[in-house]
Amino acid sequence: MKFFADTADTAEIRDLAEAGLVDGVTTNPSLIHKSGRDFVEVTREICGIVSGPVSAEVVATEHDQMMREAEVLRKIADNIAIKVPLTIDGLKTCRKLTGDGTMVNVTLCFSANQALLAAKAGATFVSPFVGRHDDVGYPGMELIADIRLIYDNYDFATEILVASVRNPIHVHDAAKLGADVMTAPPAVIRQLVKHPLTDNGLKAFLADWEKTGQKIV
Ligand code: E4P
Protein backbone atom coordinates (compact mmCIF):
# COMPACT_ATOMS: atom_id res chain seq x y z
CA MET A 1 0.00 0.00 0.00
CA LYS A 2 1.33 3.41 -0.95
CA PHE A 3 1.56 6.10 1.72
CA PHE A 4 0.57 9.65 0.86
CA ALA A 5 1.07 12.49 3.35
CA ASP A 6 -2.15 14.46 3.85
CA THR A 7 -0.58 17.85 4.49
CA ALA A 8 0.86 21.01 2.97
CA ASP A 9 3.54 21.20 5.67
CA THR A 10 6.75 20.92 3.65
CA ALA A 11 9.02 20.35 6.67
CA GLU A 12 6.95 17.33 7.69
CA ILE A 13 6.89 16.00 4.11
CA ARG A 14 10.69 16.32 3.84
CA ASP A 15 11.29 14.58 7.15
CA LEU A 16 8.97 11.63 6.45
CA ALA A 17 10.27 11.33 2.87
CA GLU A 18 13.80 10.77 4.25
CA ALA A 19 12.45 7.63 5.95
CA GLY A 20 10.84 6.43 2.71
CA LEU A 21 7.33 7.01 4.04
CA VAL A 22 5.99 9.40 1.43
CA ASP A 23 4.95 8.00 -1.95
CA GLY A 24 2.84 11.06 -2.70
CA VAL A 25 0.99 13.98 -1.11
CA THR A 26 -2.62 15.09 -0.89
CA THR A 27 -3.71 18.64 -0.17
CA ASN A 28 -7.12 20.26 -0.01
CA PRO A 29 -8.28 23.87 0.45
CA SER A 30 -8.42 23.44 4.24
CA LEU A 31 -4.82 22.18 4.39
CA ILE A 32 -3.65 25.06 2.17
CA HIS A 33 -5.42 27.48 4.52
CA LYS A 34 -3.71 25.82 7.50
CA SER A 35 -0.28 26.21 5.84
CA GLY A 36 -0.82 29.96 5.51
CA ARG A 37 1.10 29.87 2.22
CA ASP A 38 0.41 30.70 -1.41
CA PHE A 39 -1.30 27.72 -3.07
CA VAL A 40 0.84 27.55 -6.23
CA GLU A 41 4.09 28.26 -4.39
CA VAL A 42 3.61 25.60 -1.70
CA THR A 43 2.36 23.06 -4.23
CA ARG A 44 5.44 23.64 -6.41
CA GLU A 45 7.69 23.14 -3.39
CA ILE A 46 5.93 19.87 -2.49
CA CYS A 47 6.30 18.62 -6.08
CA GLY A 48 10.03 19.21 -5.77
CA ILE A 49 10.27 17.11 -2.60
CA VAL A 50 8.34 14.03 -3.74
CA SER A 51 8.39 12.43 -7.17
CA GLY A 52 5.02 10.68 -6.68
CA PRO A 53 1.57 12.18 -7.25
CA VAL A 54 0.76 15.47 -5.52
CA SER A 55 -2.96 16.22 -5.40
CA ALA A 56 -3.99 19.85 -5.91
CA GLU A 57 -7.70 20.59 -5.66
CA VAL A 58 -9.80 22.81 -7.92
CA VAL A 59 -12.22 25.13 -6.14
CA ALA A 60 -14.61 25.80 -9.04
CA THR A 61 -17.88 23.88 -9.07
CA GLU A 62 -18.65 24.20 -12.77
CA HIS A 63 -16.87 22.16 -15.48
CA ASP A 64 -15.49 24.94 -17.70
CA GLN A 65 -14.06 26.82 -14.75
CA MET A 66 -12.66 23.58 -13.27
CA MET A 67 -10.83 23.05 -16.57
CA ARG A 68 -9.41 26.58 -16.44
CA GLU A 69 -8.14 26.01 -12.90
CA ALA A 70 -6.76 22.59 -13.83
CA GLU A 71 -4.78 24.20 -16.68
CA VAL A 72 -3.00 26.42 -14.14
CA LEU A 73 -2.44 23.60 -11.66
CA ARG A 74 -1.15 20.98 -14.06
CA LYS A 75 1.53 23.39 -15.30
CA ILE A 76 3.07 23.43 -11.80
CA ALA A 77 4.82 20.07 -12.27
CA ASP A 78 4.55 16.74 -14.07
CA ASN A 79 3.57 14.90 -10.88
CA ILE A 80 0.42 16.96 -10.19
CA ALA A 81 -2.85 15.03 -9.80
CA ILE A 82 -5.84 17.32 -10.21
CA LYS A 83 -8.34 16.80 -7.42
CA VAL A 84 -11.99 17.25 -8.37
CA PRO A 85 -15.14 16.76 -6.29
CA LEU A 86 -17.47 13.84 -6.90
CA THR A 87 -20.13 15.78 -8.84
CA ILE A 88 -21.25 15.52 -12.46
CA ASP A 89 -19.08 18.55 -13.31
CA GLY A 90 -16.17 16.98 -11.45
CA LEU A 91 -16.63 13.72 -13.36
CA LYS A 92 -16.74 15.54 -16.71
CA THR A 93 -13.52 17.30 -15.76
CA CYS A 94 -12.01 13.97 -14.67
CA ARG A 95 -12.83 12.32 -17.98
CA LYS A 96 -11.41 15.20 -20.01
CA LEU A 97 -8.21 15.46 -17.99
CA THR A 98 -7.42 11.75 -17.82
CA GLY A 99 -8.12 11.56 -21.56
CA ASP A 100 -5.29 14.09 -21.95
CA GLY A 101 -2.98 11.98 -19.76
CA THR A 102 -3.32 14.02 -16.57
CA MET A 103 -3.71 12.21 -13.23
CA VAL A 104 -7.01 12.90 -11.47
CA ASN A 105 -8.03 12.26 -7.87
CA VAL A 106 -11.83 12.26 -7.44
CA THR A 107 -12.46 13.36 -3.89
CA LEU A 108 -15.32 13.55 -1.37
CA CYS A 109 -16.45 10.00 -2.14
CA PHE A 110 -18.96 8.69 0.40
CA SER A 111 -20.63 5.75 -1.36
CA ALA A 112 -19.69 2.72 -3.42
CA ASN A 113 -21.91 3.94 -6.26
CA GLN A 114 -20.03 7.23 -6.32
CA ALA A 115 -16.78 5.25 -6.53
CA LEU A 116 -18.23 3.29 -9.45
CA LEU A 117 -18.91 6.57 -11.25
CA ALA A 118 -15.37 7.80 -10.59
CA ALA A 119 -13.95 4.63 -12.12
CA LYS A 120 -16.23 4.94 -15.16
CA ALA A 121 -15.02 8.52 -15.62
CA GLY A 122 -11.45 7.16 -15.75
CA ALA A 123 -10.21 8.50 -12.41
CA THR A 124 -6.61 7.71 -11.50
CA PHE A 125 -7.59 7.77 -7.80
CA VAL A 126 -10.85 7.81 -5.90
CA SER A 127 -10.78 9.19 -2.35
CA PRO A 128 -13.35 7.65 0.01
CA PHE A 129 -13.33 9.51 3.33
CA VAL A 130 -13.34 6.94 6.15
CA GLY A 131 -12.93 9.23 9.17
CA ARG A 132 -15.82 11.49 8.21
CA HIS A 133 -17.97 8.37 7.76
CA ASP A 134 -17.03 7.14 11.22
CA ASP A 135 -17.89 10.60 12.57
CA VAL A 136 -21.53 10.18 11.53
CA GLY A 137 -21.81 6.63 12.85
CA TYR A 138 -21.22 4.66 9.64
CA PRO A 139 -18.21 2.32 9.61
CA GLY A 140 -15.99 3.95 6.97
CA MET A 141 -14.01 0.78 6.33
CA GLU A 142 -17.13 -1.01 5.07
CA LEU A 143 -17.09 1.47 2.22
CA ILE A 144 -13.51 0.53 1.37
CA ALA A 145 -14.40 -3.18 1.36
CA ASP A 146 -17.36 -2.52 -0.96
CA ILE A 147 -15.33 -0.42 -3.38
CA ARG A 148 -12.53 -3.04 -3.43
CA LEU A 149 -15.06 -5.75 -4.29
CA ILE A 150 -16.72 -3.71 -7.03
CA TYR A 151 -13.45 -2.56 -8.62
CA ASP A 152 -12.11 -6.12 -8.59
CA ASN A 153 -15.36 -7.45 -10.12
CA TYR A 154 -14.80 -5.27 -13.17
CA ASP A 155 -11.01 -4.88 -13.18
CA PHE A 156 -11.21 -1.11 -12.84
CA ALA A 157 -7.74 0.46 -12.82
CA THR A 158 -8.77 3.36 -10.57
CA GLU A 159 -6.74 3.23 -7.35
CA ILE A 160 -8.57 3.31 -4.01
CA LEU A 161 -6.99 6.13 -1.99
CA VAL A 162 -8.27 5.83 1.57
CA ALA A 163 -8.68 9.41 2.86
CA SER A 164 -9.75 11.08 6.07
CA VAL A 165 -7.52 8.65 7.95
CA ARG A 166 -7.49 9.53 11.64
CA ASN A 167 -5.63 6.71 13.44
CA PRO A 168 -3.38 3.63 13.05
CA ILE A 169 -6.39 1.28 13.01
CA HIS A 170 -7.59 2.94 9.81
CA VAL A 171 -4.18 2.27 8.24
CA HIS A 172 -4.15 -1.34 9.40
CA ASP A 173 -7.66 -2.01 8.10
CA ALA A 174 -7.01 -0.26 4.78
CA ALA A 175 -3.95 -2.46 4.20
CA LYS A 176 -5.85 -5.65 5.10
CA LEU A 177 -8.61 -4.73 2.65
CA GLY A 178 -6.12 -4.21 -0.16
CA ALA A 179 -6.52 -0.46 -0.59
CA ASP A 180 -3.99 0.84 -3.11
CA VAL A 181 -3.08 4.00 -1.20
CA MET A 182 -3.82 5.64 2.11
CA THR A 183 -3.32 9.30 2.88
CA ALA A 184 -2.81 10.35 6.48
CA PRO A 185 -1.69 13.40 8.43
CA PRO A 186 2.02 13.22 9.39
CA ALA A 187 1.09 12.70 13.06
CA VAL A 188 -0.77 9.49 12.19
CA ILE A 189 2.13 8.23 10.05
CA ARG A 190 4.44 8.87 13.02
CA GLN A 191 2.07 6.99 15.35
CA LEU A 192 2.54 3.85 13.22
CA VAL A 193 6.13 3.41 14.39
CA LYS A 194 5.20 3.46 18.05
CA HIS A 195 5.14 0.28 20.13
CA PRO A 196 5.81 0.09 23.88
CA LEU A 197 7.73 -3.19 23.49
CA THR A 198 10.04 -1.51 20.96
CA ASP A 199 10.67 1.35 23.39
CA ASN A 200 11.20 -0.97 26.38
CA GLY A 201 13.40 -3.34 24.40
CA LEU A 202 15.59 -0.51 23.17
CA LYS A 203 15.90 0.89 26.68
CA ALA A 204 17.02 -2.51 28.04
CA PHE A 205 19.54 -3.09 25.24
CA LEU A 206 21.07 0.36 25.76
CA ALA A 207 21.30 -0.16 29.53
CA ASP A 208 23.12 -3.49 29.08
CA TRP A 209 25.43 -2.00 26.45
CA GLU A 210 26.36 0.78 28.84
CA LYS A 211 27.42 -1.90 31.38
CA THR A 212 29.90 -3.42 28.91
CA GLY A 213 31.83 -0.15 28.89
CA GLN A 214 32.45 -0.57 25.14
CA LYS A 215 32.02 1.82 22.21
CA ILE A 216 31.31 1.05 18.55
CA VAL A 217 32.88 4.23 17.25
C1 E4P B 1 -7.52 14.01 1.46
O1 E4P B 1 -7.43 13.96 0.26
C2 E4P B 1 -8.70 14.51 2.16
O2 E4P B 1 -9.01 15.80 1.76
C3 E4P B 1 -8.46 14.42 3.64
O3 E4P B 1 -7.95 13.13 3.93
C4 E4P B 1 -9.68 14.75 4.47
O4 E4P B 1 -9.38 14.48 5.82
P1 E4P B 1 -10.28 15.04 7.04
O5 E4P B 1 -11.62 14.39 6.96
O6 E4P B 1 -9.52 14.66 8.27
O7 E4P B 1 -10.37 16.53 6.83
UniProtKB/TrEMBL annotation:
GO process annotations (BP): carbohydrate metabolic process; ketone catabolic process; pentose-phosphate shunt
What keywords does the record list, in alphabetical order? Cytoplasm, Pentose shunt, Schiff base, Transferase
One cellular component (GO) term of this entry: cytoplasm
Pathway the protein contributes to: Carbohydrate degradation; pentose phosphate pathway; D-glyceraldehyde 3-phosphate and beta-D-fructose 6-phosphate from D-ribose 5-phosphate and D-xylulose 5-phosphate (non-oxidative stage): step 2/3
Q: Report the Gene3D superfamilies cross-referenced here.
A: Aldolase class I (3.20.20.70)
HAMAP family in the record? Transaldolase_3b
Name of the protein: Probable transaldolase
